[in-house]
Design brief:
6 strands; 38% helix; 16% strand
């Protein structure tokens, strides 16, 4: 399925306009019926690629970090306990939403970049992810961070 649209729009209004386009809506509808989704995980930090390429401003990222963001999948930010952050950037993202992702039986996160431990641990704790494909070092980091950051009782 091809989704010919920017991943992040500059405003919520632009995003709503893009999402109302028939071709984009059709692609998202088909994608939402998939049996398998392969997704990436992005880290949340001030020098992240999302900030460097202009998807989010530094102020946007600082606000998310203040709320406890450690990463995002398809623009849905979450904290170390896997709690989705309500005030994330979802209103500017042209992608499947969390509800649609939960309907996909098999969601696989693929991450090969180094230093993704916190973002991967948070992603695994969201309940959206069934499988992880990553490097040995990232896997070790996730296991270590799981020990260092036990799941909060309120999660």
């Amino acid at each position: 399925v091809s989704l010919l649209a920017p991943a992040f729009s500059s405003t919520p209004e632009m995003c709503a306009s893009l999402l109302s386009h028939n071709q984009i809506q059709s692609a998202l509808d088909v994608t939402g019926q998939a049996d398998l989704a392969l997704v990436g995980v992005a880290e949340a930090h001030e020098s992240s690629t999302d900030v460097l390429v202009g998807c989010f401003t530094m102020d946007d990222m600082r606000r998310l970090l203040d709320e406890g963001a450690v990463g995002h999948m398809l623009g849905a930010f979450y904290d170390i306990n896997g709690r989705m952050l309500a005030r994330g950037m979802r209103d500017r993202v042209v992608a499947l939403n969390e509800h649609d992702m939960r309907r996909i039986p098999k969601v696989v996160v693929i991450a090969s970049e180094a230093k993704k431990g916190l973002a991967l641990l948070g992603a695994l704790r969201t309940g959206l992810v069934n499988s992880l494909i990553t490097t040995m070092q990232n896997a070790r980091d996730v296991l270590q961070m799981n020990e260092e950051h036990p799941l909060s009782e309120s999660a």
